[in-house]
Amino acid sequence: MDRRTLLAVVLCFLILLGWQKFYVEPRMPTQATSQVAQIAQQSPEQPASRSTQGATTPAPAAQTEKRPSQTLSLQGPNGQITLDDGGSFISDWILRDYKQGMSKEAPQVDLKSVTHQGGQLQLAFDDNSLEYLNHVQGALQPTAQGALWSFEDANVKLTREFTLSPQSNFLNARITAEFKTRSPRFAFLSLVSQGMGQDQEAQDQQLLYWHEGVERVQLKDTIEQKQIASPVKFIAATSRYFILTAVDQSPVAPNGLQQPVGPHTGRMSLVYPVTSNSIQIPLKIYFGPKDLNALRQVDSTLDHAVDFGWFTIFAYPLLQLLKWFYQFVQNYGVAIILLTLLLKAVTFPLNYKSMKNMKNMAKLQPQLQRIKEKYKDDKETLNREMLSLMKTHGYNPAAGCLPIVIQMPIFFALYRVLYGSIELYHAPFGFWIHDLSSRDPFYITPVLLSLTMFIQQKLTPNTATDPAQAKMMQLMPLIFGAFMISLPSGLTLYMLVNALASIAQQVFLNKKLDIKPA
User: Fold this and answer.
1) Nearest-angstrom CA–CA distance, 214 and 497
2) What residues contact 508, with CB distance under 8 A and at least 6 apart?
3) Which of 321, 326, 433, 439 could share a disulfide with 335, CB 3.0–4.6 Å?
4) Residue 484, SS3?
């Protein structure tokens, strides 16, 4: 491609990445029903009492006899789940096959390493008289298929039933509340996550919910209180590679509530209306890798939690191709190289057509320059004469850009695949690259990428006459190399191999089309 087109592609690439990394388009809150409009004022943080006929029942005092905390461990399909007898359903969930680092001594990935919270999933109500239930200790005992937690006093009877199935990769939960004196208006099933500024994956720490599509809340940004109309299918807390989610299974879909809790900390809740003296909440709870197949086993909508950006339709087949290559070579670094070369071969006809158009454009440059000088004070005539000259010589400007436009969705989709796929998490390549999900420890690939882009520039014919544009092009290898320093080495490896293949392709096309390099 000519330098002007290359500049446009690179700038588009940088703009799109900047948009995805540093900006979340604000969305207007969905108009809710009159019930949902009250949820923010009746949330667990600011309970609102519900008036009833007769005398108001005073809120019971919290348990005075605090016994030692009791936990119960279940061996789930992907690791050990530790249940709690207090306000949080789950005190920990340790994944068997994933570590937090590459060393042998590195701890396993657990719930706290993803959400930075000690316990997860709490049930609360909008009635002040039931606020003490957030802190009670219940009886926790094993059952044939899981565990049962129960608590009962003069006001309420609560149970949490947990079951595991050998055929499932999630924890089934059934939460029941029976109100003996008065009923609240809403029940809140919540999870909390905190973004850590020093974490290299801070930009990927999010709260999610599904409402007619997945919605993302960046924890590094200011979190606003927001009411979410029904239906809300699931809520989740995620990092780049892992997710904790609660998926609703009730017949009537709940509403949702998003709340700030502290600096870079947010709560996401499923909000259930209580229409009688009891409520039952069935859930699927999953904690584990953001693997597409694993997520689809939990719920058909949950694969959208993996953020492949605008070009997901291209990302899915590219990921399947990458995994297909891995089956043969058993090395994701080699699989990335093979996939890159395959895409380069598939898109070669488009690049060939682009180079032919570029050559035609180069022939017209002297005449175009004369027209620019002649009509420099008359823009309308200048554009008309330039288009007339191009049409006379059979050159279509759009035809030169079309091959690049066709390739851009593939390019961006592959970027997202290599940036966030769990398949590359701690996957070794060789030499000095031991983890394709982390940046190059010695910055060798970004430096090599800058050098190859510089060589590619020298091999590419220059059709630009603007000095400012030419200077900008000279700086692009350095800018691009600096940009890639902090990105995963798997992505940098792809860019490097792509640049090397482009050099080989450029040498071939220069010879075949008799094109003189810059």
Assistant:
1) 34
2) none
3) 326
4) helix
Do 300 and 195 contact (CB within 8 A), yes or no?
no
Q: Which residues contact 322 (CB under 8 A, 6 or more apart)?
A: 332, 335, 336, 339, 417, 421, 423
Q: Strand pairing of 79-84 and 206-210?
A: unpaired
Beta bridge partners of 214: 210
Quick one: CA dihedral 147, 246, 108, 331, positive or negative? Answer: positive
Q: What whole-number distance in Å separates Cα of residue 235 and Cα of residue 209?
A: 4
pLDDT on residue 32: 34
Q: What is the DSSP letter of 29?
A: P
- The pLDDT of residue 27: 37
Q: How far apart are CA 308 and CA 290, in angstroms?
A: 12
According to DSSP, residue 169 is labeled S
pLDDT digits (tens, 9 = 90+) for 116-150: 998 899 999 999 999 999 889 999 999 999 999 99
d(CA 474, CA 131): 64
Are 177 and 187 contacting, i.e. CB atoms less than 8 angstroms apart?
Answer: yes
Round to whole Å and give the CA distance between 337 and 335.
Answer: 5
**Structure confidence at residue 55 (pLDDT):** 35
260 has which bridge partners? 266
The count of other CB atoms within 10 Å of the CB of residue 371 is 19
Q: How far apart are CA 257 and CA 226, in angstroms?
A: 6
pLDDT at 234: 96
- CA dist 64 and 42 (Å) reads 27
Backbone angles phi, psi at 161, to 5 degrees: -110, 120
* pLDDT tens for each residue of 30-62: 333 333 444 445 555 443 333 333 334 444 544
How confident is the model at residue 189, as a pLDDT? Answer: 97
Phi-psi region of 430 (alpha: psi -120 to 50; beta: other; left: phi over 0): left
37: three-class secondary structure by DSSP: helix
Compute CA 259 distance to the chain's CA centroid, rounded to the nearest angstrom.
20
> What share of residues in the chain are helix, strand, coil (percent, to 5)?
40, 25, 35
How many whole angstroms separate alpha carbon 345 and alpha carbon 332? 20
Helix or strand or coil: residue 332?
helix
Alpha carbons 389 and 518: distance in angstroms, whole number: 24
Which residue positions in the chain have pLDDT lower than 50?
1-8, 16, 19-40, 45-59, 61-62, 64
CB 488 within 8 A of CB 437: yes
The helix/strand count (H/E) of the chain reads as 12, 18
How confident is the model at residue 348, as a pLDDT?
Answer: 87
DSSP assignments along 85-129, one per residue? SSSEEEEEEEEEEEESSSSTTPPEEEHHHHH--SSEEEEEES-GG
